[in-house]
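User: Um, any thoughts?
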Amino acid sequence: MASCSRTTQPSGTSASVKQTCCAASAKASRTQFEARRLSEIWTPILEQLEARTGLEFKMIGSPRIPEFEQAFGRGEFDFSYMNPYHSLVAFSRQGYEPLVRDGDRKLSGVLVVTKESPYKTVSDLENARIAFPAPNAFGASLLIRANLDRVHDLDFVPDFVNTHSSAYLNVVLGEADAAGGVMSTFMALDPDVRDHLRILYETPEMPPHPIVVHPRVPREIAERVQRAFLEIAATPEGAEILSKIPMRRAVATQASDYGSLTKLELEDYYVEIGSN
């Protein structure tokens, strides 16, 4: 996974505040995109935030999703971009609150197979090996595994391979029969890889990844960062750089926007660090 942090100094004070932002549970990254790609996405955004808030941000990296989970569980990040279910866990353990999300896009998991495979329905994957990026990747793993179990009563062998791209490649190379992912990472694949795959199943849509803030961050600073995201999104250039997260239309958000996720009862599928 990747995360980002920057040391910040509120204007008008001599005290410094450390602001940390997870850049893509890679989103991402978890990782959905490799570290270089994450830097390409988030560096322009952080530069815009610095210019509009007077704060400084330092990017930090987490090599894999479990390390990222341990870090936010300890409250190491002041600001973080994380998957929706992680935001519930982060709220319960550290009090992280959602600040900004995409107002145009919903999140859904996709189950992909090779175009030449004989699989036509989910039931055809009975006892199949299915690659997932990580146990707690929301759309790519938690949602899909819960639906395969509860909705389709499917027996399968899960294989956790650390990243979205690795999951897809395992299918292309014949190491797995299917793979869990999300639409954004599937579409971001190199066409030479994506052209070998097709989507067999897609989960219901859910609220997208939020940017969250730790409660130790002063409310005035949190609101300043929230306003900056909305201001960036209001310009054509800003909307373009935010779309690479992807966040097509930044809107303010709050914990109640993610309350419906608790009804999914995904606790049975969430893997605690050190339990696997």
Observations:
- The longest helix spans residues 35-53.
- The first strand starts at residue 4 and ends at 8.
- Confidence is low (pLDDT under 50) at residues 1-33.
